[in-house]
Amino acid sequence: MKCTNCQGEWIPPQNVSLSKCPFCQTDIIQALNTKTADLTPEVILRNMLTVYGMELLQNEQRLSAMIADLLAHDKKTKKLLLFSVKEKVPQQMAAFAESDQRELKLQALQHHLHEDAFLHEDAARQIINIWDLALELEEPDESFEIVWKLGYCGFRNSKGKMITPFKYEVAGKFSNGLAWVELNEKFGFIDKSGKEVVQLKYDRFELFSHDKDEDHQFSEGLTIVKLNFKYGYIDKKGIEIIQLKYSNAGSFKEGLATVKQLKWGFVDKYGKEVIPLIYDNINTFNENFAPVCFDNKWGFVNNIGKKISLLIYDEVFSFSEGLAGVKLNTKWGFIDKNGVEITTIKYDNVYGFSNGLSYVEMNEKFGFIDKYGQEVISLKYDKYDRYNHFINLYKYPFFEGLTIVALNGKLGYIDKIGNEISPLKYDEAYSFSEGLAVVKLNSKYGFLDKTGNEIIPLKYSNAGSFNEGLATVKHLKWGFVDKYGKEVIPLKYDEAYSFSEGLADVKLNFKYGCIDKKGIEIISIKYEERINFNRGLALVKLNSKYGYIDKTGIEIIPIKYEERINFNRGLALVKLNSKYGYIDNAGIEIIPIKYEEEIKFDEDIFLVLLNDKYGFIDLTGKVIIPLKYDHADPFCDGLARVQLNDKWGFIDKTGNDKIPLKYDFANSFNWDFAVVRLNGKKGFINKRGDIVIPIIYEDAKDSEYYLADVKLKGEWLSVDLGNYLDELRF
Description:
By secondary structure, the protein is mainly beta. About 10% of the residues lie in helices and about 45% in strands. Strands 3-4-5-6 form a four-stranded antiparallel sheet, with no helix packed on it.
């Protein structure tokens, strides 16, 4: 069992209906109950099964008691679920979870509830759907990895089993049970069984991300997709919930999403345009209100489209903790959700509220106001952004409860009520990290705690913030101290970097390596460049050669290659003995290292040079277009520019002359057209090879935005190539 409060784990006692966490003494039911009114029934049930385990399904009395408690706020759903326990629905569904005939058995169970248990068809369907989602106790999203083979990727689960073939050109991580995949420039989604639950037919989709490290492609159950220049929304089964008819669209937030058709408005999850598409610009909802703009003036609407303020402001911020910053005639202030100005619009700058306070600036001095507009911290401090040592000082000022302030060129820290917890005397100050902050005074660095005490003396010539319990410090050389100031790793390195996942990069005698928290060299200090691990591997340089090592220092890809190795689609171009080839991420040579020029890889075809002739090979190294050309470019949109016997043209992927090799010269295609030269004259062709601008001009320049310049009798003329676009519909 796992406590949802402190994350402690233990084996639960037998035959006990309610238990407390032995670590933090939290009542488990109480922990599960937290904010249940804001959760869907399936999430509540899933949390319950995560904590108590699947064996809970075998104890009907205990299971019923928990459902009654956890769903007390939703009497209708509670009644249905209690009935389902009586009919042994969850037990049966769990039993055939891995069955090949699972879908048929689900239908049969739903039919039983409807016909034999006399439930309404909708109620029977609801029971099956809730338990179906609740019993999804599958592998977590992060346990799946993307693996590559011959330039294509697939997915492997934690047991080492491939759930898809190696068939996709690009793919993204699993999030909310689905992963996006791309093939032939079309996007779709797969589930954890590898099934393509959303057909690969879309030109684009959106990754809604609340932070940059985690993809949340389905925002509130829907994601944006694009097809034929139109946007709409699909659900996780690929059903188009909102018609693809908009010229632009944004993510769902608080039940509404921004959409555009000439003008902007909002739709709900059923596609109803609840706020008319009449605005020039808008932003997403936050705290039930959204900024809207008309005729360059901003205001706010609520979630039924009612204006709460006149559209009179030059700029606005979204609501934060019940208030929003507004700008009028170069000055800022705040309004509440009734549109009432709670402060005079007089500040030079403001930011949103955080923990009841907002940064405000006036006459190059700053302080903080509360939600009543009172200046609780006087506007007496100087701006401090000389080094940008801290994260979002003005937007999120009180990092770990304290913020840096400057006065008369000196720095210190204040708390949320304006108390100066340290004297304003330091030359430099940094944000708190793990309870301590780096400060500098008279060219010496040390550390303060949150009471302002210099917990580690200011005696070092440099220092870095704490990370994983240790911080870098320098006194002639670099080393590490703990939070008591003990130099736990000797100050002997030329450079040292923060710990990450138990390892830290260090430099000694112009060489790099990695040490653990005891100072033991895990990666020998012998490499010529700093070591940066990514997904457990690091590119390293030794004796001017490159390769990859793992976190134990083992060479995964031999350190023998002459240039840096960068992987793309699981393949990397490598150079050895002045020849080029490709290896996969296991170090196996996929394309033999024998070619004379850097190999260009596009559209699954490699452009190679051997014996001074160009040709094309596939992902297995097989020659698919003979190496006979004097010059060639990589394929783009199915065509490649080539030269043979002083004539230029374009070939397709079978090697056929799509555009005959008859020109004295041909430029690459640009905006669907290419300049060609024949008998000293220039003109334009399209991708079908048709001459769209006669080859009669003295000179011609590549098109830009379908506009081109041509020269005739010494004068330049402009030609609109857009008139010929219909020629391209082939």
